């Protein structure tokens, strides 16, 4: 009886058990289980842990480019010929201004991202001051993506008030050497452990569409369960011209939804974020992703623009969800009402395309 499988999945997740690998693989198989039944299951756990709240993140490349690593997908890597703006770490006042703007825009969390592998001590010292400043001024969660860090550096950040540290696993252990050779998967896992050991919340995400197979995707979701990542950004590859990775492979909107379901069902309590590429890969199914995921980036990604704030906020409202912010969703949307109801008349060519073709 096919319906038993959905009941089995529900019972396992509800009991706190991990799904078996073969069941996890079935979730990704478009010819097997029913997508809407899986969405319903995933939604039950999304609702249980997050109600109908969406957590909005604003991500800020506080420093951009000049990276010596060879991550194949990244616009900032040494292999990339992407035409991006490169700059050293922004000034403190620039960063604080952006943190305030993120808060005013309705963000729940502000995330500062650095390129490069490690974190020089001077950078950590500057971050300590910046984090203290942000936490004193605005009620917003703060996350940093600093590359690898030492225990001592992690402690300093935690003491300054940092809430969360991001370090993505990106792909599975078995596939890792296909996307990066200058640093290892183990180094990435180690960084997460360092963050965890000082009491920081851990954010670690993945990128889909880089040529991995479903077994790799299951491995990623299971690994993030093992490291107890509180936050999991699920990125869908944006093929940036000039990067060696090439075009995304194997992604369809329905498959992307199933990937989100898999991450939710293996990590039911985690903040699952539909991260980069949601517009490009989920397309018309993007709003449905919110039944599974409880988190979004508000203002695009690192070097690539995303949907406008207004469209993202409107999608949240249209779906009947709300944001976690002192700002009111309706107030944030008010200014955009005009844009929402804008219309243009068709011109004559659109109304009578065959007028002169007799
Ligand atoms: S992902 Fe990070 S480490 Fe890798 S190339 Fe980009 S900036 Fe460098």
Keywords:
10-stranded parallel beta sheet, alpha/beta, 10 strands, globular, single chain, TIM Barrel
Short précis:
The protein is of the alpha/beta class. The protein has helices spanning 3-15, 21-28, 35-50, 92-104, 121-137, 151-160, 176-179, 185-197, 214-226, 253-266, 278-282, 309-318, 329-334, 337-340, 348-351; strands spanning 53-61, 109-113, 141-145, 164-166, 201-203, 206-208, 231-236, 271-274, 295-297, 322-323. Strands 1, 2, 3, 4, 5, 6, 7, 8, 9 and 10 form a ten-stranded parallel beta sheet that branches.
What does this structure look like?
- By secondary structure, the protein is of the alpha/beta class.
- It has a single domain (16-351), classed as Aldolase class I (TIM Barrel, Alpha-Beta Barrel).
- The chain is 42% helix and 12% strand.
- Strands 1, 2, 3, 4, 5, 6, 7, 8, 9 and 10 form a ten-stranded parallel sheet that branches.
- Helix 11 (278-282) links the parallel strand 8 (271-274) and strand 9 (295-297).
- Helix 3 crosses helix 10.
- The chain is globular and about 75 Å long.
- The chain starts with a helix and ends in a 7-residue tail after the last helix.
- The model has no long low-confidence stretch (mean pLDDT 94).
- The structure holds iron/sulfur cluster.
């Amino acid at each position: 009886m096919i319906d038993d499988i959905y009941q089995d999945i529900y019972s396992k997740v509800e009991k706190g058990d991990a799904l078996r690998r073969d069941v996890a693989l079935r979730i990704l198989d478009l010819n097997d289980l029913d997508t809407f039944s899986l969405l319903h299951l995933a939604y039950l756990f999304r609702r249980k842990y997050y109600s109908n709240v969406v957590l909005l993140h604003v991500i800020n490349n506080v420093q951009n480019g000049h990276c010596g690593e060879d991550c194949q997908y990244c616009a900032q890597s040494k292999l990339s010929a992407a035409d991006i703006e490169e700059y050293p770490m922004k000034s403190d006042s620039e960063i604080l201004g952006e943190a305030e703007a993120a808060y005013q825009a309705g963000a729940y969390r502000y995330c500062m991202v650095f390129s490069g592998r490690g974190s020089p001590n001077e950078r950590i010292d500057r971050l300590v001051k910046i984090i203290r400043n942000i936490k004193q001024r605005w009620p917003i969660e703060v996350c940093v993506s600093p590359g690898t860090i030492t225990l001592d550096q992690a402690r300093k950040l935690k003491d300054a008030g940092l809430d969360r540290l991001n370090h993505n696993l990106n792909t599975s252990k078995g596939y890792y050497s296909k996307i990066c050779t200058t640093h290892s998967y183990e180094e990435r896992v180690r960084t997460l452990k360092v963050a965890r050991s000082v009491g920081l919340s851990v954010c670690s995400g993945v990128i889909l569409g880089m040529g991995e197979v479903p077994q790799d995707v299951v491995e990623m979701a299971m690994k993030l369960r093992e490291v107890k990542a509180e936050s999991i950004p699920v990125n869908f590859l944006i093929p940036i011209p000039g990067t060696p990775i090439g075009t995304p492979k194997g992604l369809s909107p329905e498959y992307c939804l199933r990937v989100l379901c898999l991450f939710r069902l293996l990590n039911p309590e985690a903040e699952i974020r539909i991260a980069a590429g949601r517009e490009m890969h989920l397309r018309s199914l993007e709003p449905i992703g919110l039944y599974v995921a409880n988190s979004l980036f508000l203002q695009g990604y690192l070097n690539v623009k995303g949907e406008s704030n207004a469209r993202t906020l409107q999608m949240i409202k249209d779906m009947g969800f709300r944001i976690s912010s002192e700002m009111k969703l309706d107030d944030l949307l008010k200014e955009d009402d005009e844009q929402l109801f804008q219309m243009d008349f068709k011109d004559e060519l659109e109304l009578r395309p065959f007028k002169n073709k007799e």
